[in-house]
Specification:
It is built from seven helices and eleven strands. The chain is α/β, with parallel strands linked by helices. α1 runs parallel beside α5, α2 packs parallel to α3 and α6 crosses α7.
Length: 281
């Protein structure tokens, strides 16, 4: 973040709730709609609006705001997927595999280079899961990197999203780098994923005051924002080069179910070294 505030050429697809577009810390940012679903909140108190605005703030709020404000000069393509209705039980929004598949395709067609996905799967029937698999393949074929929250069910395992080879699943950790008790873990998450802060993160609220939130939905934007900043600084890098630099495996196959902590500096240094090597050759 000290090196860059991002580039408008790098578009982040936000598949989440709608966003409070009139929030003073978002006004002036490059925010567009992906697809035909309206991006602005109609009900500021809805969980969907609060969730979408919170994540948007982490990525795109102006520097100096209460939010992390990782990549304010990037472009945000908002593709709302959560309905604006209050369930009354405080549960986080979820979506069906078909809904997620359509949203991923819309974000890719709109020009997203990175997709941030924080959604629980609802009713994963076989045909819907197949459509979601095909949508993730569609994104991968176009060199779009999908970053997905690992989920907060305190389970060990995987989903069609977290086990996809082109997805970076993100587990949540506390401020000491230890896994959060509720974060999902698993072999595919440990092998191809990262951990990021998920404990009491502060970002934008929808009704005037900042709000704090936790879980893997708050962890994923740290990885998404890092990718967007790196791509802004290394626009000639391929998606594969960015993934390798960020995951930092060095060709070593991981076996743990807990992924390593996001290390933006190490990824930056890896890309500098790769760029220097290309120039020397």
């Amino acid at each position: 973040m000290e090196r860059s505030s991002g580039s408008s050429e790098i578009a982040i697809g936000l598949i989440d709730g709608p966003v409070a577009m009139d929030h003073p810390d978002l006004v002036g940012g490059q925010i567009r709609v992906a697809g035909t679903v309206g991006a602005a909140c109609g009900l500021s108190g809805s969980i969907a609006c609060q969730h979408g605005t919170f994540v948007a703030g982490m990525l795109m709020a102006r520097r100096g705001s209460s939010a992390p404000a990782i990549c304010p000069d990037c472009t945000l393509l908002v593709r709302p997927i959560f309905p604006e209705k209050n369930s009354g039980n405080g549960e986080m929004p979820s979506a069906t595999p078909r809904e997620l598949a359509a949203a991923i395709r819309d974000a890719v067609v709109a020009g997203a280079r990175v997709i941030n996905l924080s959604a629980a799967l609802l009713h994963p029937d076989s045909s819907g899961v197949q459509q979601l698999q095909e949508a993730l393949d569609f994104a991968a074929a176009r060199s779009v990197i999908t970053v997905a929250a690992a989920g907060n069910q305190a389970s060990i395992g995987s989903t069609v999203i977290t086990r996809h080879p082109w997805v970076i699943p993100v587990a949540g950790c506390d401020l000491h780098g230890s896994p959060m008790p509720e974060s999902n873990l698993g072999s595919s998450i440990g092998r191809r994923g990262l951990s990021a802060p998920a404990d009491n993160i502060t970002s934008l609220g929808t009704e005037g005051m900042p709000r704090s939130f936790g879980g893997t939905s708050a962890a994923a934007p740290f990885v998404t924002g890092t990718l967007a900043l790196l791509w802004s600084m290394f626009p000639a890098a391929s998606a594969t080069q960015l993934k390798l630099a960020l995951l930092g495996t060095g060709g070593v196959r991981r076996s743990a179910v807990v992924p390593p902590l996001l290390d933006a500096t190490a990824a930056y240094q890896a890309l500098v070294a790769a760029q220097t090597g290309r120039q020397m050759s």
